[in-house]
Design brief:
By secondary structure, the chain is α/β, with parallel strands linked by helices. It folds into two domains: 184 residues, Class I glutamine amidotransferase (GATase) domain (Rossmann fold, 3-Layer(aba) Sandwich); 118 residues, Arc Repressor Mutant, subunit A. α5 packs antiparallel against α6 and α9 crosses α10. The longest helix has 19 residues. It is globular, with a radius of gyration of 23 Å. The termini are far apart.
Length: 329
């Protein structure tokens, strides 16, 4: 009788320049701990650079890699792209070509933090559910409006894995460990990590806005949710009030009591924060950013932006776009 073959799994971590060390370490440490807790080598891994043999993460730490993209792979391997800041500058033809080639082999491919942007650019998320760090959500949807983006900590859709980054990478890996080798091992690893509550695909990345800012009033919470969902086409305070069954004056009092500002001011701050994210993370013109955040007048957008951030949208972008410049932005 032939001896049973030991089941193992090999992970290939592709570290992009300025990758998030937290997201990466939260992914690789569960594999190490799984080996320790099971007292056998269930998981192997390789660190891969796109070019050369070193890569620098976003906090300045330099990591030595085992291979570059010429690493041999087989269909049972799992590729995890590790992203971080300045993700678009790391999306090269070489990387995209390699990912498409590996995808055709049938490999499972995942992305941590902002690396969802890489997978989407390579066409690997077409028709797939995915997630990305909440701060990059607006810019991702501007580039890929048809993609099935959700707000969960991680998403598994077939052989595509995406995690929002940070400690969400650990939740994804614990899920994959449990799927491959059972819940007992995944729970043992979580205990070693002092990770007392393993999150699932149903858990959101962020607390709800009412919870985050300490608001418990149901009517106000409903209005905050409506505002968040209608940044591109803002509603008037009176219309928002009527939708939740209060008067405009009552709504004003609720905002003053719980948020120390008017509904109009709070709404403006939400729109301006979205505008700043788009300016910093996309190549959208300043005029298009203004329109995407509910400003029909470029001059009004510039005035509001400068008042709130003490900077103009044009300077924030650092752009030399002549259209933006001529518009006075």
């Amino acid at each position: 009788m032939m001896p049973a073959t030991k089941v193992t799994k090999n992970y290939i971590f592709v570290l992009l320049e300025n990758f998030s060390l937290l997201a990466f370490s939260s992914a690789i440490e569960p594999l190490r701990l799984a080996n320790r807790m099971s007292q056998e080598k269930k998981f192997f891994w390789n660190l891969v650079c796109v070019e050369g043999n070193q890569v620098t993460c976003s906090n300045g730490t330099i990591i030595n890699c085992d291979h570059n993209l010429e690493i041999p792979t087989n269909r049972a391997d799992v590729i995890i792209i590790c992203g971080g800041t300045n993700i678009k500058s790391n999306i090269t033809k070489k990387l995209l070509g390699w990912l498409r080639k590996e995808s055709r082999k049938g490999l499972c491919i995942g992305g941590l933090c902002t690396a969802t942007q890489v997978l989407a650019t390579a066409g690997l998320l077409d028709g797939k559910r995915c997630t990305i760090h909440w701060e990059n959500r607006d810019s991702f949807l501007e580039d890929f409006p048809e993609h099935l983006l959700n707000a969960s900590v991680y998403t598994v859709d077939g052989n595509r894995y995406t995690a929002a980054g940070g400690v969400a990478s650990a939740d994804l890996m614990l899920h994959l460990i449990g799927k491959e080798f059972g819940a007992d091992l995944a729970n043992s690893v979580a205990d070693q990590m002092i990770h007392t509550a393993i999150r699932t695909e149903k858990d959101d990345q962020r607390l709800s806005i009412p919870t985050r800012i300490g608001v418990r009033h149901p009517k106000l919470a409903a209005v905050l949710d409506l505002m968040q969902k209608s940044l591109e086409e803002p509603e008037s305070p009176s219309k928002l009030a009527s939708q939740v069954g209060v008067s405009t004056r009552q709504l004003e009092r609720l905002f003053r009591k719980y948020l120390n500002r008017s509904p109009k001011r709070y709404y403006m701050e939400l729109r301006l924060q979205k505008a700043r994210n788009l300016l910093l993370q996309t190549n959208m013109t300043v005029i298009n950013v203004a329109l995407a955040c509910g400003f029909s007048s470029p001059s009004h957008f510039s005035k509001c932006y400068r008042s709130h951030f003490s900077n103009t949208p044009y300077r924030e972008r650092g752009s030399t776009d002549s259209d933006n410049h001529s518009a006075g932005l």
